[in-house]
Fold Histidinol dehydrogenase.
Amino acid sequence: MLRLDASASGFAERFSTLVEAGREADTDVSDAVRGILQRVRTDGDAALLSLTRKFDRIDVAADGLAITQAEMDAACAEVAPDLMAALELAAARIRIFHEAQRPAGHEQVDTDGNRTGWRYTAVDAAGVYIPGGRATYPSSVLMNAIPAKVAGVERLVMVTPTPDGRMNPLVLAAARLAGVDEIYRVGGAQAVAALAYGTETIAPVDVITGPGNAYVAEAKRQLYGRVGIDMVAGPSEILVVADKGADADILAADLLSQAEHDPVAQAILITDSAELADAVAAAVPRALAHISTKAVAAESWDAHGAIITVAALGDAVPLIDALAPEHLALAVADPETLFQRVRHAGSVFMGYMTPEAIGDYVAGPNHTLPTGRRARFSSGLGVADFMKRTTFLACSDAGFAAIGPAAATLAEAEGLPAHALSVTRRF
Ligand SMILES: NC(=O)c1ccc[n+]([C@@H]2O[C@H](COP(=O)([O-])OP(=O)(O)OC[C@H]3O[C@@H](n4cnc5c(N)ncnc54)[C@H](O)[C@@H]3O)[C@@H](O)[C@H]2O)c1
Ligand SMILES: N[C@H](CO)Cc1c[nH]c[nH+]1
Ligand SMILES: [Zn+2]
């Protein structure tokens, strides 16, 4: 873990090294992914079955790719009542939050009677990728599938790998609660390729969302343009800003909550209290001793964690904007003032009683967020990712007469006489 003091000499260089440090897969997976995409495009189901045998170590027949209603029923029956109740609470809150996010159309009429505006419509079909390699994430099923259904997507497809044939029943229960229409037991780049190109069994979709490892992320990146994607999200990160009113043991847990996702996850604390900085540095190893994910979380904290001391909380603002973290937790007495000044963060958690982990599961806002400083230019997953905006224009006779000549003039200036004629013929 790196300790930095913003008032020490050389801070700017050391902070900029921290900001620029890449944490994403250093192995270049692009050639391997290109090969997988090509195989699926050419060989369809046969490629899916062969790659699933290789990477997930299971033999699936083509007619076994789809998860059946009977398997869904059996999975739901297996889920303990308290778990099902927690899933239902999460699903209801996520749905309410995203229903409020549905974008509205707009229409305006100018003084000459020309009507302009836009309207939103859902894509016909969307695919959500749910990771299943290292861990399974029922919460990510809800976070991806519910916004799609709120957007009005008619055909919602889920793909998820089942390594060694294992499928988490909670993932299937979450899919049923969220209204997923089709589920296929296939993962990795091959699953993303099947969603984009289609195979004999899986019909293609228009948009693909969801987190995944480097192969999944690279497949989405390469297929963008043929299909829409939400974003390229990498390893998790959290930036906690805390003042002396925060509790060191609670902060240690907050930091480790994201560190435990991945050895290359990143957890950073910024504080204006030197005592708190020391207390958190001591609390993290104590907290690590009690968690089963110690190995992963410790690797992340040791290699990518940081504690930064600033003279005043306001000094944290430019550091936050430079890091543009996926999650920003403001464990301070007056989070609102800091929040008003911050411009770049995927999602913000305000006050001592708002841990990021509550947002991962049940609060309502989406947990699929931009990482790796991409919050400078992109946003978390939302209903609009499953929709597109169509603009429209209806000219009145008087309105056409008012603006037509200028269009004809500009068309002539661009050397496009047919454009000009298309306007002037109507005069
Ligand atoms: N940002 C979020 O909201 C969020 C949520 C959940 C998970 N995640 C992240 O998603 C990632 C999930 O990764 P994962 O690996 O556990 O599951 P995954 O499902 O993304 O990947 C598993 C698949 O990767 C493919 N694969 C593995 N090795 C390969 C190789 N050598 N060549 C080609 N393909 C290969 C296989 O097809 C396998 O089925 C983690 O980094 C996790 O932190 C992010
Ligand atoms: N924090 C993760 C996104 O960075 C999402 C998640 C799923 N489950 C627990 N957490
Ligand atoms: Zn998490």
User: Anything to note?
Assistant: The chain has three domains: 30-104+123-229, 234-376, 395-424. The pocket of zinc ion (ligand 3) is lined by residues 236, 258, 261, 360 (CB under 6 Å). The first helix runs from residue 11 to 20. The two ends are 73 Å apart (CA to CA).
